[in-house]
Write a structure and sequence with these properties.
By secondary structure, the protein is α+β, with helices and mostly antiparallel strands. The chain has one domain. The chain is built from five helices and two strands; from the N terminus they run ααββααα. Strands 1-2 form a two-stranded antiparallel sheet. Helix 2 packs across helix 3. The longest helix is centred in the C-terminal third of the chain and has 14 residues. The protein is globular and about 50 Å long.
Length: 103
């Protein structure tokens, strides 16, 4: 099973119900990322029991760090990875733990 297939399977385990003709269409759907995060045990907004994920935002009061849900953080990491010439497969190789890939 490829890492992309495993990521899709994990999202389905997390409750994702969408079916896509092209495997890359999954990665455009916020419900895919939310479901993957649920299956992977990612931090949700307001959860203080796990490491903080934030982004820097500028505004009238200067720089602020705001808390974001981990699914959104990981989704943006994929976009950055692709923008730097990486592939979806190589991104998910770093995201899905090795023991999960073998199942």
């Amino acid at each position: 099973m490829t890492t992309l297939q495993k990521a899709i399977e994990k999202a389905i385990e997390g409750g994702f119900k969408g079916l896509r003709a092209n495997k890359y269409e999954y990665f455009l759907d916020p419900l895919f990322w939310q479901s993957l995060g649920k299956a992977m045990g990612w931090k949700e907004k307001g959860d203080t029991s796990k490491p903080f994920f934030g982004k820097i935002q500028t505004g009238d009061v200067g720089l602020q760090i705001i808390q974001v849900e981990e699914y959104l953080y990981q989704w943006h990491r994929l976009i950055d990875h692709l923008a730097k010439g990486g592939t979806a497969e190589s991104f998910f190789e770093t995201l899905i733990p090795p023991e999960e890939k073998l199942k």
